[in-house]
Amino acid sequence: MSDRAPSPEDTGDSDWLDRATGVGTSVGRALMLPALAVISALIVGAVIIALTDIDTLRVWGDDPGEAFRLTVSGIGDAYRALFIGSLGSWRAITETLFAATPLILAGLAVAIGFQAGLFNIGVNGQMLIGGMAGLWVGFSIDVPAIIHIPLAILAAMAGGAVWGGIAGLLKARTGAHEVITTIMLNFIAIFLVDYLLKSSIFQQPGRNDPISQPAASSAQFPRFLGDYRLHIGFLLALAAVWISWWLLYRTTIGFEFRAVGFSPSGARYGGMNVAWIYVAVMAVCGALAGIAGANQILGLEPYRGISNFAGSVGFDAIALALLGRSHPIGVLFAGLLFGALRAGGREMQGAAGIPIDLVLVLQALIIVMIAAPALVRAIYRIKTPDHELETSISTGWTK
Fold first, then answer.
1. How far apart are CA 340 and CA 96, in angstroms?
2. Which residues on neighbouring strands pair with residue 231, listed in sequence order?
3. Average pLDDT of every residue of the chain
4. 53 within some domain
5. What total number of domains does the chain contain?
6. Residue 165 · residue 171 · CB < 8 Å
7. Could you check whether the bond before residue 214 is cis, i.e. omega within 30 degrees of 0?
8. Most buried of 14, 51, 137, 305 (most Cβ within 10 A)?
9. Rounded CA gap, 388 and 392, in Å?
10. 3-state SS string for 124-138
11. How far apart are CA 215 and CA 96, in angstroms?
């Protein structure tokens, strides 16, 4: 008889590698629901395309066979255009990656909060403050690009971290719910940015509207390939994915983040400073959102600040974190999917005559399917694993 202790392989524990890498109990199981949610959304989207094609609907009463052919052809044309516009050429691929860049960064800002049991709805506000900090560095100093760009990114991270840390501090010191405080901070950030854009510090000379002076050319994110809009922001997003994965699954602080998310009382009993962890989590989330905000100014023409330049990225990030199951790698692929929908939506509108609003409908359907996993399981007759029976998106909702 051997004295060697049994290894995970010997005991038949096939999940040991997944747990070690932080992927989950099963890679296939982790990917199944998001994949089925996307498929379901595309199916429902096809039904919507068919029902909104008024000309073809009129044909059903006279010639059902021809109407069926037209319906199938219309759906095929729409999804073919969606594919061509997102992956059908090198320009389309670069547009997909360009659109995915801020989504990935913002999605990470939500996902890390989810991992720690916090629902960070304040990504838009953190993007705004971080972007303005990066913009200020972008036009206020004159240094070579190799120094200027990192300084602007660091400033954006600092601005976003401070704004996110405020919500964490309020939760740590007063117990204020992060959902409420981050929503309020979003509004404060919007009006603060409008005020700053009209101040002498930021406003473009000779203008009376909230438009800032442009960032210096040395602070603008350089593009990869000439006329294509893809720039180094995508490399920053990839680096952020790797760093987020490393932070969560390879460091002590990442373990503490996840422990607090699993059980704050258990983490406190284990000697962790839960209050400090709340502040740290929100600061990390804010720093990631700050990079996304800088991307929207320093990586996007005309390289200047305008009112609410963050758009809806911060709210789309919630869907990304849900679709990616709050895992950095999942957020990366979810961001690429949403980037493809955005890039392909323009081609779908032009080539197939389908309103670009259908892309928003597809995104909403994906969110619904992800937010209601029981519905997806019921449709496809999938048994619910025992370990998922009592899970929630974020334990912060139940505190």
1. 5
2. 223
3. 86
4. yes
5. 1
6. no
7. no
8. 305
9. 9
10. HHHHHHHHHHHHHHH
11. 25
Note the pLDDT tens digit of each residue in 125-175: 999 999 999 999 999 999 999 999 999 999 999 999 999 999 999 999 999
Helices and strands counted in the chain (H then E):
16, 0
* Contact predicate 277/165, CB 8 Å: no
Q: 238 φ, ψ to 5°?
A: -65, -40
Place of tokens 């389309």: 92
Task: Tell me whether residue 9 is in a domain.
Answer: no
Number of Cβ within a 10 Å radius of residue 310:
27
pLDDT tens-digit readout, 259-293: 999 999 999 999 999 999 999 999 999 999 999 99
Is the whole-model pTM more than 0.70? Answer: yes
Q: How many CB atoms lie within 10 A of CB 151?
A: 15
Strand pairing partners for 212?
203
CATH of the domain at 346: 1.10.3470
CA distances from residue 10 to 5, 21, 23 in whole angstroms, order as listed:
9, 19, 21
From CA 31, how far away is CA 325, in angstroms rounded?
9
Q: CA-CA distance, 36 to 24, in Å (whole number)?
A: 18
The confidence band for 12, taking pLDDT boundaries of 50, 70 and 90, is very low
Q: Which amino acid is at 378?
A: A
In a domain, 10, yes or no: no
Higher pLDDT, 268 or 20: 268
Decide if 16 is inside a domain.
no
Q: Is residue 51 a contact partner of residue 88, using CB atoms and an 8 Å limit?
A: no
Full domain range(s) for residue 247: 27-398
Residue indicated by tokens 């869907």: 319
Distance in angstroms (rounded) separating the CA atoms of residues 171 and 281? 11
